[in-house]
Each structure stands twice: as C-alpha cells, then as structure tokens.
TrEMBL record:
<dbReference type="Pfam" id="PF13561">
    <property type="entry name" value="adh_short_C2"/>
</dbReference>
<dbReference type="InterPro" id="IPR002347">
    <property type="entry name" value="SDR_fam"/>
</dbReference>
<dbReference type="GO" id="GO:0008709">
    <property type="term" value="F:cholate 7-alpha-dehydrogenase (NAD+) activity"/>
</dbReference>
<dbReference type="InterPro" id="IPR036291">
    <property type="entry name" value="NAD(P)-bd_dom_sf"/>
</dbReference>
<keyword id="KW-0560">Oxidoreductase</keyword>
<protein>
    <submittedName>
        <fullName>7-alpha-hydroxysteroid dehydrogenase</fullName>
        <ecNumber>1.1.1.159</ecNumber>
    </submittedName>
</protein>
<comment type="similarity">
    <text>Belongs to the short-chain dehydrogenases/reductases (SDR) family.</text>
</comment>
Amino acid sequence: MNENMNGKTLVISGGTKGIGKACVYRFAQEGVNVAFTYNSNAQVAQEIADDVEAKFGVKCKCYAFNVLEPEKYKELFLEIDKDFDRVDFFISNAMIYGRAVVGGYGRFMKLKPRGLNNIYTATVNAFVCGAQQAAKRMEKTGGGSIVSLSSTGNLVYIENYAGHGTNKAAVEAMVRYAATELGDMGIRVNAVSGGPIDTDALKAFTNYEEVRDKTAELSPLNRMGQPTDLASACYFLCTKEASWVTGHTLIVDGGTTFK
C-alpha cells in the first residue's frame, strides 16, 4: 500500500471490465477508495465493488451511467458526493461499441455522422464533462490528476478505426488544453494511449484475431497488451512520481507504433 495514496478517491467511468476494471483493482490495492460507473450490468458491478472492499479494505461503490449522456456527469458526481468526501483522481475510460458505433466503425467511405457523433460524445464530450466536475472537487483539496484513455489508432492505421482514431486524436488535444488551464488549481491532466489491448472492446472488432496476432508479431516484447499494462500507466500518472508530468500522452504499446 502506498501511504501517499491511502485514503484518496478515484472516480473512473467504465469499471466492470477491461482497462477500467484493472484500474479499479490497481488503485484499490494502494489504499485508494474507488467510485466507478457501469452501463447495464448492475450485478457484475456490485460483485466487483464487494470484492474490492473485501480484498483491500477500501470503500468501493458503483453507479449506473450512460456515457452517451455526458451532461449527466453533474448528477453522477452529486451522488458520489454522498458516499465520498473527496475526489483526487478521475479517469475517463468508458467507451461504446456495438450498435451505438454503427456508421462510426468502418472504412472511410462507409462512415456516417450519427456513428461518428456518438463516438465523439463518448470520447471527447464525456472527458470534458467528467473532468469539469472532477476538477471542481479536486480544487477544494489542493489538486489532483485527470487521465483520459486514448489509442495509438490515431497514430497508425488500424482497419475500420477511422472514427475512433480521429476522436482519440481529438481527446488528446483536449487533454493538452485542460492541462494548460487547470494547472493553476494543482490539477495535472494526461492521456494514456494504448496499442491494441486484449479487451472485450477489441474482441468486438470483426478482425479481432488478426489484430491480436499482428500486435504480438509487431511488438519487440512478443505479446499482446493486457489491461493491467494500461492500468499501471494510469496509476503512475496519478502518483507523486509524476508530479511534473502534465499535458502529455504516455504511449503504452509494447513498441508496436514504431514498427
């Protein structure tokens, strides 16, 4: 347990699987209390919250939230305020896939505004609305750290990923603007950009197995990225060890982007 982190509070969107779930456990094992959101599966979310509290002795609560309605972050944080007396870290992680991205996930000539707009809402608007609410609370405690998840799909070509990749580039730009304007509050803002990570979101890709095998082949480390790889990077950016890191995108890709 990290004494500098013990008793602080993380708010993270999308904590029931993949990178988000890995972050919940990574922070909790260091004594950080956790508030996380889920989209639909209340039972799974509650099981995770109960497991985290039992294993690490921290407070862990889950809240229903639809990332396609980012304006409701205000209501969400008011609910979190009832259970937690402070907010120190915010990670914008939740992402959409499936029906909501139809028209946004596909080759360039098949892209349509509705799908693209949904991805923008879930990526950029959600980051902005969540970070605004978190920053108001962080200011009261002297600062904090905000992290947005991103993807190297805005740097290298991934088939059918134009909609997501473009919006990841947009959220990284928004991160730099937020970092510049929130620094006076003692708030650092960064992004963690992952290469292809073995998650349910990636498994939703039509060419999942091809991406998985190609990633392992491209990486000098000869393996696919795991959710814990990105969770550890998010955790680092929230610690005192990263106290002079802000407005930065930390690429965690197993060396795949260079190749």
